[in-house]
Amino acid sequence: MLRKLLRFLTGRLFISLVLIVVQLATLFLVLFYVQNNAVWFQILSGLSIVMTLVVVVRDLNPAYKIGWMLLFMFFPVYGGIFYILFGNRRLNRRLRDRLEQLNVVYQKGVEGGSYSDLLPMRALASYSNTLSRQAQYIVNITGYPVWSNTEVEYFPSGEAWVIDLLEELAKAKSFIFLEFFIVAEGEVWDAILAVLLDRIRRGVRVCLMFDDAGSLFTLDSHFDTRLRALGIEVVAFNPLRAHLNSRLNSRNHCKVVVIDGNIGYTGGVNLADEYANRLLRFGHWKDTAVKLKGDAVWSLSQMFLQLWAFSTGRSENFAVHRPTITAHTDGFVQPFSDNPLDDNNVAENAYIQIISMAKRYVWITTPYLILDNEMITALKIAAQSGVDVRIITPHIPDKKYVFAVTRSYYRVLLDAGVKIYEYTPGFLHAKMFVSDDRVAIIGTINMDYRSFYLHFENGVLFYGSSVVRKVYDDIEDTLAICRPIDTEFLRTRKWYSRLVGIILRLAAPLL
Protein backbone atom coordinates (compact mmCIF):
# COMPACT_ATOMS: atom_id res chain seq x y z
CA MET A 1 0.00 0.00 0.00
CA LEU A 2 2.80 2.41 0.95
CA ARG A 3 4.65 1.58 -2.26
CA LYS A 4 1.57 2.38 -4.35
CA LEU A 5 1.10 5.66 -2.49
CA LEU A 6 4.72 6.68 -3.04
CA ARG A 7 4.48 5.73 -6.70
CA PHE A 8 1.38 7.90 -7.07
CA LEU A 9 2.90 10.86 -5.24
CA THR A 10 6.00 10.77 -7.44
CA GLY A 11 4.14 10.01 -10.66
CA ARG A 12 3.47 12.32 -13.60
CA LEU A 13 -0.26 12.59 -12.88
CA PHE A 14 0.07 13.85 -9.31
CA ILE A 15 2.92 16.22 -10.09
CA SER A 16 1.11 17.65 -13.14
CA LEU A 17 -2.12 18.20 -11.21
CA VAL A 18 -0.28 19.88 -8.34
CA LEU A 19 1.55 22.22 -10.70
CA ILE A 20 -1.68 23.12 -12.52
CA VAL A 21 -3.42 23.86 -9.19
CA VAL A 22 -0.47 26.03 -8.13
CA GLN A 23 -0.66 27.93 -11.43
CA LEU A 24 -4.40 28.49 -11.03
CA ALA A 25 -3.98 29.67 -7.45
CA THR A 26 -1.17 32.02 -8.50
CA LEU A 27 -3.28 33.40 -11.33
CA PHE A 28 -6.20 34.12 -9.01
CA LEU A 29 -3.94 35.75 -6.43
CA VAL A 30 -2.33 37.98 -9.04
CA LEU A 31 -5.68 38.96 -10.52
CA PHE A 32 -7.10 39.62 -7.05
CA TYR A 33 -4.14 41.85 -6.28
CA VAL A 34 -4.05 43.84 -9.50
CA GLN A 35 -7.80 44.49 -9.56
CA ASN A 36 -7.25 46.89 -6.67
CA ASN A 37 -4.87 48.88 -8.85
CA ALA A 38 -6.84 51.42 -10.87
CA VAL A 39 -4.62 51.16 -13.95
CA TRP A 40 -4.61 47.35 -14.03
CA PHE A 41 -8.35 47.32 -13.33
CA GLN A 42 -8.91 49.41 -16.45
CA ILE A 43 -6.52 47.29 -18.54
CA LEU A 44 -8.18 44.00 -17.53
CA SER A 45 -11.67 45.43 -17.96
CA GLY A 46 -10.68 46.71 -21.40
CA LEU A 47 -9.31 43.28 -22.27
CA SER A 48 -12.64 41.72 -21.33
CA ILE A 49 -14.45 44.20 -23.58
CA VAL A 50 -12.13 43.34 -26.48
CA MET A 51 -12.60 39.60 -25.90
CA THR A 52 -16.37 40.16 -25.79
CA LEU A 53 -16.21 41.71 -29.26
CA VAL A 54 -14.01 38.82 -30.46
CA VAL A 55 -16.58 36.29 -29.25
CA VAL A 56 -19.44 38.22 -30.87
CA VAL A 57 -17.85 38.38 -34.33
CA ARG A 58 -16.41 34.83 -34.37
CA ASP A 59 -18.37 32.12 -36.17
CA LEU A 60 -19.29 30.20 -33.02
CA ASN A 61 -22.33 28.35 -31.75
CA PRO A 62 -24.73 30.83 -30.03
CA ALA A 63 -24.79 28.74 -26.82
CA TYR A 64 -20.99 28.95 -26.66
CA LYS A 65 -21.16 32.72 -27.08
CA ILE A 66 -23.83 33.06 -24.39
CA GLY A 67 -21.69 31.10 -21.94
CA TRP A 68 -18.75 33.44 -22.41
CA MET A 69 -20.97 36.52 -22.31
CA LEU A 70 -22.25 35.43 -18.90
CA LEU A 71 -18.69 34.93 -17.71
CA PHE A 72 -17.73 38.41 -18.95
CA MET A 73 -20.80 39.86 -17.22
CA PHE A 74 -20.23 38.21 -13.82
CA PHE A 75 -16.41 38.51 -13.90
CA PRO A 76 -15.70 41.66 -15.94
CA VAL A 77 -12.12 41.90 -14.68
CA TYR A 78 -11.12 38.25 -15.11
CA GLY A 79 -13.19 37.27 -18.13
CA GLY A 80 -10.70 38.40 -20.79
CA ILE A 81 -7.81 36.50 -19.20
CA PHE A 82 -9.95 33.36 -18.87
CA TYR A 83 -10.89 33.52 -22.55
CA ILE A 84 -7.27 33.91 -23.68
CA LEU A 85 -6.24 30.91 -21.56
CA PHE A 86 -9.19 28.58 -22.13
CA GLY A 87 -11.38 30.00 -24.89
CA ASN A 88 -9.30 28.87 -27.86
CA ARG A 89 -10.74 25.51 -28.94
CA ARG A 90 -8.14 24.95 -31.65
CA LEU A 91 -4.63 23.57 -31.52
CA ASN A 92 -1.80 25.92 -32.34
CA ARG A 93 -0.90 26.78 -35.92
CA ARG A 94 2.05 24.35 -36.09
CA LEU A 95 -0.07 21.37 -35.06
CA ARG A 96 -2.96 22.40 -37.33
CA ASP A 97 -0.56 22.64 -40.27
CA ARG A 98 0.79 19.18 -39.52
CA LEU A 99 -2.72 17.69 -39.52
CA GLU A 100 -3.56 19.48 -42.75
CA GLN A 101 -0.48 17.98 -44.39
CA LEU A 102 -1.64 14.53 -43.34
CA ASN A 103 -5.07 15.24 -44.83
CA VAL A 104 -3.37 16.04 -48.15
CA VAL A 105 -1.49 12.72 -47.99
CA TYR A 106 -4.77 10.94 -47.33
CA GLN A 107 -6.57 12.64 -50.23
CA LYS A 108 -3.75 11.80 -52.66
CA GLY A 109 -3.89 8.19 -51.49
CA VAL A 110 -7.60 7.97 -52.19
CA GLU A 111 -7.44 9.70 -55.56
CA GLY A 112 -4.44 7.75 -56.75
CA GLY A 113 -5.62 4.28 -55.78
CA SER A 114 -8.03 1.71 -57.14
CA TYR A 115 -10.50 2.58 -54.40
CA SER A 116 -11.36 5.98 -55.83
CA ASP A 117 -14.10 4.90 -58.24
CA LEU A 118 -17.54 6.42 -57.81
CA LEU A 119 -19.56 3.25 -58.36
CA PRO A 120 -20.71 2.87 -54.72
CA MET A 121 -21.89 6.50 -54.61
CA ARG A 122 -23.72 6.14 -57.93
CA ALA A 123 -25.33 2.93 -56.73
CA LEU A 124 -26.39 4.68 -53.51
CA ALA A 125 -27.94 7.50 -55.55
CA SER A 126 -29.98 4.90 -57.44
CA TYR A 127 -31.07 3.42 -54.12
CA SER A 128 -31.98 6.79 -52.58
CA ASN A 129 -31.28 10.34 -53.75
CA THR A 130 -31.95 11.57 -50.21
CA LEU A 131 -29.36 9.28 -48.64
CA SER A 132 -26.83 10.02 -51.37
CA ARG A 133 -27.06 13.73 -50.48
CA GLN A 134 -26.17 12.91 -46.89
CA ALA A 135 -23.28 10.74 -48.08
CA GLN A 136 -22.09 13.49 -50.42
CA TYR A 137 -21.97 15.96 -47.54
CA ILE A 138 -19.61 13.62 -45.66
CA VAL A 139 -17.46 13.18 -48.78
CA ASN A 140 -17.27 16.92 -49.46
CA ILE A 141 -16.28 17.87 -45.91
CA THR A 142 -14.15 14.93 -44.75
CA GLY A 143 -13.10 13.16 -47.96
CA TYR A 144 -14.28 9.78 -46.66
CA PRO A 145 -16.16 7.94 -49.44
CA VAL A 146 -19.04 5.48 -49.57
CA TRP A 147 -18.03 1.82 -49.86
CA SER A 148 -19.61 -1.39 -51.06
CA ASN A 149 -17.76 -4.76 -51.00
CA THR A 150 -17.93 -4.67 -47.20
CA GLU A 151 -19.36 -7.23 -44.80
CA VAL A 152 -20.79 -5.86 -41.56
CA GLU A 153 -21.57 -7.33 -38.16
CA TYR A 154 -23.38 -5.69 -35.26
CA PHE A 155 -22.63 -6.30 -31.57
CA PRO A 156 -25.42 -5.36 -29.12
CA SER A 157 -23.09 -5.55 -26.11
CA GLY A 158 -19.52 -5.01 -25.09
CA GLU A 159 -19.30 -8.63 -24.00
CA ALA A 160 -20.03 -9.92 -27.52
CA TRP A 161 -17.60 -7.42 -29.01
CA VAL A 162 -14.69 -8.46 -26.77
CA ILE A 163 -15.15 -12.15 -27.60
CA ASP A 164 -15.12 -11.49 -31.35
CA LEU A 165 -12.22 -9.05 -31.08
CA LEU A 166 -10.03 -11.59 -29.27
CA GLU A 167 -10.75 -14.20 -31.95
CA GLU A 168 -9.80 -11.85 -34.80
CA LEU A 169 -6.72 -10.44 -33.06
CA ALA A 170 -5.39 -13.99 -32.69
CA LYS A 171 -5.47 -14.34 -36.50
CA ALA A 172 -3.47 -11.16 -37.27
CA LYS A 173 -0.57 -11.70 -39.66
CA SER A 174 0.79 -8.24 -40.47
CA PHE A 175 -0.34 -5.38 -38.20
CA ILE A 176 -2.82 -4.37 -35.50
CA PHE A 177 -3.95 -0.79 -34.86
CA LEU A 178 -5.72 0.02 -31.57
CA GLU A 179 -7.09 3.49 -30.76
CA PHE A 180 -9.18 4.19 -27.65
CA PHE A 181 -10.21 7.05 -25.42
CA ILE A 182 -9.84 4.91 -22.28
CA VAL A 183 -7.57 1.97 -21.56
CA ALA A 184 -7.77 0.43 -18.10
CA GLU A 185 -5.87 -2.52 -16.72
CA GLY A 186 -8.13 -5.42 -15.77
CA GLU A 187 -9.61 -8.63 -17.15
CA VAL A 188 -10.37 -7.22 -20.60
CA TRP A 189 -6.96 -5.60 -21.03
CA ASP A 190 -5.12 -8.67 -19.70
CA ALA A 191 -6.87 -10.94 -22.22
CA ILE A 192 -6.13 -8.56 -25.11
CA LEU A 193 -2.52 -8.01 -24.04
CA ALA A 194 -1.88 -11.79 -23.98
CA VAL A 195 -3.05 -12.06 -27.60
CA LEU A 196 -1.04 -8.99 -28.65
CA LEU A 197 2.17 -10.40 -27.17
CA ASP A 198 1.60 -13.69 -28.96
CA ARG A 199 1.19 -11.83 -32.26
CA ILE A 200 4.33 -9.76 -31.64
CA ARG A 201 6.33 -12.96 -31.19
CA ARG A 202 5.08 -13.95 -34.66
CA GLY A 203 6.27 -10.72 -36.25
CA VAL A 204 3.03 -8.70 -36.18
CA ARG A 205 3.34 -4.94 -35.71
CA VAL A 206 1.13 -3.67 -32.85
CA CYS A 207 0.35 0.05 -32.44
CA LEU A 208 -1.68 1.38 -29.50
CA MET A 209 -2.92 4.97 -29.18
CA PHE A 210 -4.87 6.07 -26.12
CA ASP A 211 -6.03 9.47 -24.95
CA ASP A 212 -3.86 10.72 -22.11
CA ALA A 213 -6.63 12.61 -20.32
CA GLY A 214 -9.21 9.88 -20.93
CA SER A 215 -6.93 7.31 -19.30
CA LEU A 216 -5.65 9.68 -16.63
CA PHE A 217 -7.14 7.78 -13.70
CA THR A 218 -7.04 4.27 -15.19
CA LEU A 219 -3.34 3.90 -16.08
CA ASP A 220 -0.17 4.61 -14.15
CA SER A 221 2.45 6.94 -15.55
CA HIS A 222 4.74 4.05 -16.53
CA PHE A 223 2.17 2.15 -18.62
CA ASP A 224 3.53 3.20 -22.01
CA THR A 225 7.12 2.49 -20.96
CA ARG A 226 6.25 -1.04 -19.89
CA LEU A 227 4.42 -1.75 -23.16
CA ARG A 228 7.30 -0.47 -25.28
CA ALA A 229 9.59 -2.86 -23.45
CA LEU A 230 7.25 -5.66 -24.57
CA GLY A 231 7.48 -4.61 -28.23
CA ILE A 232 4.25 -2.60 -28.55
CA GLU A 233 4.40 0.83 -30.20
CA VAL A 234 2.51 3.22 -27.91
CA VAL A 235 1.34 6.82 -28.16
CA ALA A 236 -0.50 8.86 -25.52
CA PHE A 237 -2.55 11.35 -27.54
CA ASN A 238 -2.19 15.03 -26.56
CA PRO A 239 -0.24 14.25 -23.36
CA LEU A 240 -1.11 16.08 -20.17
CA ARG A 241 1.21 19.03 -19.67
CA ALA A 242 1.98 20.60 -16.32
CA HIS A 243 0.86 24.06 -17.44
CA LEU A 244 -2.39 25.81 -18.22
CA ASN A 245 -3.38 25.54 -21.88
CA SER A 246 -6.55 25.19 -23.94
CA ARG A 247 -5.18 22.10 -25.73
CA LEU A 248 -6.29 19.98 -22.77
CA ASN A 249 -9.84 20.25 -24.15
CA SER A 250 -8.98 18.66 -27.52
CA ARG A 251 -9.29 14.96 -26.70
CA ASN A 252 -9.19 11.89 -28.92
CA HIS A 253 -12.54 10.19 -28.25
CA CYS A 254 -12.20 7.77 -31.20
CA LYS A 255 -12.40 3.98 -30.86
CA VAL A 256 -10.83 2.15 -33.78
CA VAL A 257 -9.33 -1.32 -34.23
CA VAL A 258 -7.83 -2.41 -37.56
CA ILE A 259 -6.41 -5.89 -38.20
CA ASP A 260 -4.25 -6.41 -41.32
CA GLY A 261 -6.22 -3.68 -43.11
CA ASN A 262 -9.07 -6.15 -43.74
CA ILE A 263 -11.05 -6.12 -40.48
CA GLY A 264 -12.05 -3.05 -38.51
CA TYR A 265 -14.11 -2.28 -35.42
CA THR A 266 -15.62 0.85 -33.96
CA GLY A 267 -18.41 1.83 -31.58
CA GLY A 268 -18.80 3.04 -28.03
CA VAL A 269 -16.69 0.41 -26.26
CA ASN A 270 -13.37 1.25 -24.59
CA LEU A 271 -10.74 -1.18 -23.31
CA ALA A 272 -11.98 -1.33 -19.71
CA ASP A 273 -13.82 -3.96 -17.68
CA GLU A 274 -17.05 -2.03 -17.13
CA TYR A 275 -17.70 -1.86 -20.89
CA ALA A 276 -17.96 -5.69 -20.95
CA ASN A 277 -19.70 -5.85 -17.54
CA ARG A 278 -16.69 -7.50 -15.92
CA LEU A 279 -16.89 -4.66 -13.41
CA LEU A 280 -20.26 -3.22 -12.33
CA ARG A 281 -19.91 0.47 -11.55
CA PHE A 282 -23.25 1.93 -12.65
CA GLY A 283 -25.50 -1.10 -12.94
CA HIS A 284 -25.57 -2.98 -16.24
CA TRP A 285 -23.49 -1.26 -18.91
CA LYS A 286 -25.23 -1.14 -22.30
CA ASP A 287 -22.93 -0.53 -25.26
CA THR A 288 -22.67 -1.39 -28.94
CA ALA A 289 -20.04 -1.85 -31.65
CA VAL A 290 -19.72 -2.85 -35.31
CA LYS A 291 -17.26 -4.91 -37.31
CA LEU A 292 -16.35 -4.16 -40.92
CA LYS A 293 -14.63 -6.56 -43.29
CA GLY A 294 -13.46 -5.43 -46.71
CA ASP A 295 -13.09 -2.14 -48.57
CA ALA A 296 -14.55 0.21 -45.92
CA VAL A 297 -11.83 -0.76 -43.45
CA TRP A 298 -9.48 1.41 -45.53
CA SER A 299 -11.19 4.51 -44.09
CA LEU A 300 -10.68 3.29 -40.52
CA SER A 301 -7.00 2.66 -41.30
CA GLN A 302 -6.68 6.20 -42.65
CA MET A 303 -8.28 7.67 -39.52
CA PHE A 304 -5.85 5.84 -37.29
CA LEU A 305 -2.77 6.57 -39.39
CA GLN A 306 -3.48 10.29 -39.62
CA LEU A 307 -3.68 10.75 -35.85
CA TRP A 308 -0.81 8.31 -35.30
CA ALA A 309 1.48 10.27 -37.63
CA PHE A 310 0.15 13.52 -36.14
CA SER A 311 1.04 12.33 -32.61
CA THR A 312 4.39 10.69 -33.34
CA GLY A 313 5.67 13.17 -35.92
CA ARG A 314 6.78 10.21 -38.04
CA SER A 315 5.57 9.66 -41.59
CA GLU A 316 3.79 6.42 -42.47
CA ASN A 317 3.38 4.64 -45.80
CA PHE A 318 -0.40 4.72 -45.92
CA ALA A 319 -0.64 2.63 -49.10
CA VAL A 320 0.73 -0.60 -47.56
CA HIS A 321 -2.25 -0.74 -45.19
CA ARG A 322 -4.94 -1.10 -47.86
CA PRO A 323 -7.39 -4.02 -47.69
CA THR A 324 -6.24 -7.14 -49.51
CA ILE A 325 -9.52 -9.08 -49.61
CA THR A 326 -12.84 -8.78 -51.40
CA ALA A 327 -15.87 -9.06 -49.14
CA HIS A 328 -19.57 -9.60 -49.78
CA THR A 329 -21.53 -6.34 -50.09
CA ASP A 330 -24.02 -5.60 -47.31
CA GLY A 331 -25.56 -2.27 -48.25
CA PHE A 332 -23.43 0.88 -48.36
CA VAL A 333 -20.93 1.76 -45.65
CA GLN A 334 -19.36 5.16 -44.95
CA PRO A 335 -16.93 5.47 -42.04
CA PHE A 336 -16.12 9.11 -41.24
CA SER A 337 -14.32 11.20 -38.66
CA ASP A 338 -14.74 14.65 -37.18
CA ASN A 339 -12.16 16.91 -35.55
CA PRO A 340 -12.24 20.17 -33.58
CA LEU A 341 -9.72 21.95 -35.79
CA ASP A 342 -12.17 23.37 -38.32
CA ASP A 343 -15.56 25.07 -38.34
CA ASN A 344 -17.42 22.05 -39.72
CA ASN A 345 -19.47 20.17 -37.11
CA VAL A 346 -19.63 17.07 -39.26
CA ALA A 347 -20.89 14.71 -36.57
CA GLU A 348 -23.71 16.96 -35.39
CA ASN A 349 -24.72 17.80 -38.95
CA ALA A 350 -24.85 14.12 -39.87
CA TYR A 351 -27.23 13.56 -36.97
CA ILE A 352 -29.34 16.58 -37.92
CA GLN A 353 -29.58 15.38 -41.52
CA ILE A 354 -31.01 12.04 -40.41
CA ILE A 355 -33.51 13.79 -38.16
CA SER A 356 -34.53 16.26 -40.86
CA MET A 357 -34.92 13.61 -43.58
CA ALA A 358 -36.89 11.14 -41.41
CA LYS A 359 -40.40 10.40 -42.66
CA ARG A 360 -41.61 7.72 -40.21
CA TYR A 361 -39.25 7.43 -37.26
CA VAL A 362 -35.85 8.29 -35.84
CA TRP A 363 -34.67 6.46 -32.73
CA ILE A 364 -31.64 7.60 -30.75
CA THR A 365 -29.52 6.27 -27.89
CA THR A 366 -27.03 8.54 -26.15
CA PRO A 367 -25.38 8.61 -22.71
CA TYR A 368 -25.44 12.41 -22.60
CA LEU A 369 -28.08 14.81 -23.91
CA ILE A 370 -26.64 18.33 -23.93
CA LEU A 371 -28.05 20.06 -26.98
CA ASP A 372 -27.54 23.30 -28.83
CA ASN A 373 -30.36 25.26 -30.45
CA GLU A 374 -29.87 23.66 -33.87
CA MET A 375 -30.29 20.13 -32.53
CA ILE A 376 -33.27 21.06 -30.35
CA THR A 377 -34.97 22.71 -33.33
CA ALA A 378 -34.39 19.67 -35.58
CA LEU A 379 -35.80 17.27 -32.98
CA LYS A 380 -38.82 19.46 -32.30
CA ILE A 381 -39.68 19.99 -35.96
CA ALA A 382 -39.44 16.26 -36.66
CA ALA A 383 -41.69 15.34 -33.74
CA GLN A 384 -44.18 18.10 -34.51
CA SER A 385 -44.31 16.86 -38.12
CA GLY A 386 -45.51 13.44 -36.99
CA VAL A 387 -42.17 11.61 -37.01
CA ASP A 388 -41.80 9.07 -34.19
CA VAL A 389 -38.79 10.54 -32.35
CA ARG A 390 -37.51 8.50 -29.42
CA ILE A 391 -34.42 9.10 -27.28
CA ILE A 392 -33.00 6.70 -24.69
CA THR A 393 -30.64 8.01 -21.99
CA PRO A 394 -29.23 6.29 -18.88
CA HIS A 395 -31.16 5.97 -15.63
CA ILE A 396 -28.00 5.44 -13.57
CA PRO A 397 -25.46 8.13 -14.57
CA ASP A 398 -21.68 7.89 -14.63
CA LYS A 399 -21.41 11.65 -14.05
CA LYS A 400 -24.16 13.15 -11.89
CA TYR A 401 -23.55 16.75 -12.98
CA VAL A 402 -23.89 15.77 -16.65
CA PHE A 403 -27.03 13.79 -15.81
CA ALA A 404 -28.56 16.89 -14.23
CA VAL A 405 -27.94 18.83 -17.46
CA THR A 406 -29.34 15.96 -19.56
CA ARG A 407 -32.61 16.00 -17.62
CA SER A 408 -32.88 19.78 -18.00
CA TYR A 409 -33.67 19.23 -21.71
CA TYR A 410 -36.52 16.78 -21.13
CA ARG A 411 -39.27 19.37 -20.76
CA VAL A 412 -38.76 21.22 -24.04
CA LEU A 413 -38.48 17.95 -25.97
CA LEU A 414 -41.50 16.32 -24.34
CA ASP A 415 -43.62 19.40 -25.01
CA ALA A 416 -42.78 19.05 -28.73
CA GLY A 417 -43.77 15.38 -28.81
CA VAL A 418 -40.37 13.72 -28.51
CA LYS A 419 -40.57 10.47 -26.51
CA ILE A 420 -37.85 10.07 -23.87
CA TYR A 421 -36.86 6.92 -22.01
CA GLU A 422 -34.28 6.08 -19.36
CA TYR A 423 -32.45 2.75 -19.36
CA THR A 424 -33.37 1.38 -15.93
CA PRO A 425 -30.86 -1.52 -15.59
CA GLY A 426 -27.96 0.90 -15.44
CA PHE A 427 -25.80 3.06 -17.68
CA LEU A 428 -26.41 3.28 -21.42
CA HIS A 429 -23.22 4.26 -23.26
CA ALA A 430 -24.25 3.35 -26.84
CA LYS A 431 -24.33 6.17 -29.39
CA MET A 432 -26.75 5.23 -32.18
CA PHE A 433 -29.19 6.74 -34.67
CA VAL A 434 -31.58 4.71 -36.81
CA SER A 435 -34.29 5.99 -39.15
CA ASP A 436 -36.93 4.68 -41.55
CA ASP A 437 -35.34 1.20 -41.90
CA ARG A 438 -32.81 2.72 -44.31
CA VAL A 439 -30.03 4.53 -42.44
CA ALA A 440 -28.15 4.20 -39.16
CA ILE A 441 -25.08 5.68 -37.48
CA ILE A 442 -22.96 3.84 -34.91
CA GLY A 443 -19.84 5.35 -33.44
CA THR A 444 -18.27 7.36 -30.65
CA ILE A 445 -20.30 10.56 -30.97
CA ASN A 446 -22.30 11.66 -27.93
CA MET A 447 -25.05 14.26 -28.22
CA ASP A 448 -23.15 16.91 -26.31
CA TYR A 449 -20.88 19.88 -26.86
CA ARG A 450 -17.67 17.96 -26.23
CA SER A 451 -18.36 15.47 -29.02
CA PHE A 452 -19.73 18.08 -31.41
CA TYR A 453 -17.13 20.80 -30.85
CA LEU A 454 -14.09 19.68 -28.85
CA HIS A 455 -13.27 16.02 -29.47
CA PHE A 456 -11.81 13.97 -32.29
CA GLU A 457 -14.66 11.54 -33.06
CA ASN A 458 -15.56 8.84 -35.55
CA GLY A 459 -18.64 6.95 -36.72
CA VAL A 460 -20.00 4.76 -39.49
CA LEU A 461 -23.05 5.50 -41.62
CA PHE A 462 -24.95 2.44 -42.89
CA TYR A 463 -27.31 2.85 -45.84
CA GLY A 464 -29.63 -0.05 -46.70
CA SER A 465 -27.46 -2.43 -44.66
CA SER A 466 -28.55 -5.33 -42.46
CA VAL A 467 -27.07 -3.36 -39.56
CA VAL A 468 -29.95 -0.87 -39.85
CA ARG A 469 -32.53 -3.51 -38.95
CA LYS A 470 -30.34 -4.95 -36.20
CA VAL A 471 -29.98 -1.54 -34.59
CA TYR A 472 -33.76 -1.06 -34.76
CA ASP A 473 -34.39 -4.46 -33.17
CA ASP A 474 -31.83 -3.82 -30.43
CA ILE A 475 -33.33 -0.45 -29.55
CA GLU A 476 -36.82 -1.98 -29.58
CA ASP A 477 -35.65 -4.66 -27.12
CA THR A 478 -33.96 -2.00 -25.00
CA LEU A 479 -37.13 0.11 -24.85
CA ALA A 480 -38.89 -2.82 -23.15
CA ILE A 481 -36.66 -2.38 -20.09
CA CYS A 482 -36.70 1.43 -20.05
CA ARG A 483 -38.77 3.87 -18.04
CA PRO A 484 -40.85 6.31 -20.13
CA ILE A 485 -40.39 9.91 -19.01
CA ASP A 486 -43.56 11.99 -18.76
CA THR A 487 -44.59 15.38 -17.43
CA GLU A 488 -45.61 13.84 -14.10
CA PHE A 489 -42.04 12.63 -13.62
CA LEU A 490 -40.73 16.13 -14.33
CA ARG A 491 -43.26 17.71 -11.96
CA THR A 492 -42.18 15.53 -9.03
CA ARG A 493 -38.46 16.22 -9.40
CA LYS A 494 -36.89 18.16 -6.52
CA TRP A 495 -36.67 21.88 -7.15
CA TYR A 496 -32.96 21.99 -6.32
CA SER A 497 -32.25 19.23 -8.86
CA ARG A 498 -33.94 21.29 -11.55
CA LEU A 499 -32.03 24.42 -10.48
CA VAL A 500 -28.66 22.64 -10.58
CA GLY A 501 -29.44 21.36 -14.08
CA ILE A 502 -30.33 24.86 -15.32
CA ILE A 503 -27.18 26.44 -13.85
CA LEU A 504 -24.88 23.74 -15.22
CA ARG A 505 -26.64 23.94 -18.57
CA LEU A 506 -25.48 27.56 -18.96
CA ALA A 507 -21.89 26.51 -18.38
CA ALA A 508 -22.07 23.31 -20.48
CA PRO A 509 -20.74 24.84 -23.74
CA LEU A 510 -17.59 26.04 -21.96
CA LEU A 511 -16.67 22.75 -20.25
Q: Characteristics of this structure?
A:
about 500 residues, alpha/beta, Endonuclease, Chain A, 3 domains, eight-stranded mixed sheet, seven-stranded mixed sheet, 20 helices, about 50% helix
What's the number of extended β-strand segments?
A: 17
Low-pLDDT residue intervals, each spanning 5 or more residues? 108-116
- Radius of gyration of CA atoms, rounded to a whole number: 23 Å
Structural class: alpha/beta
Broad shape:
globular
User: Could you give the distance between the termini?
Assistant: 35 Å
CATH level-4 homologous superfamily of the largest domain: Endonuclease Chain A
Beta content comes to 15-25%
- The residue-averaged pLDDT reads 86
The strand line-up of the biggest sheet is 9-16-15-14-10-11-12-17
Q: Number of folding domains?
A: 3
- The assigned CATH architecture of the largest domain is 2-Layer Sandwich
Largest sheet: 8 strands, mixed
- Helical amount: 40-55%
Explain the overall architecture:
This protein is α/β, with parallel strands linked by helices and 511 residues long. It has three domains: 2-86, no CATH class; 93-331, Endonuclease Chain A (Endonuclease, Chain A, 2-Layer Sandwich), CATH 3.30.870.10; 346-510, Endonuclease, Chain A, CATH 3.30.870. 48% of the residues lie in helices and 17% in strands. The protein has 20 helices and 17 strands. The chain has helices spanning 2-9, 12-34, 38-57, 62-74, 79-86, 93-112, 119-127, 129-142, 158-169, 187-201, 223-229, 297-312, 346-357, 373-384, 400-408, 410-416, 449-454, 466-479, 487-491, 495-507; strands at residues 150-155, 175-180, 205-211, 233-237, 256-259, 263-267, 284-286, 289-294, 332-338, 361-365, 388-394, 419-423, 426-428, 432-435, 439-443, 457-463, 482-485. The strands form three sheets. An eight-stranded mixed sheet has the order 9-16-15-14-10-11-12-17, sandwiched between helices. Strand 3, helix 11 (223-229) and strand 4 form a beta-alpha-beta unit. Helix 3 packs antiparallel against helix 4 (62-74). The protein is globular and about 70 Å long.
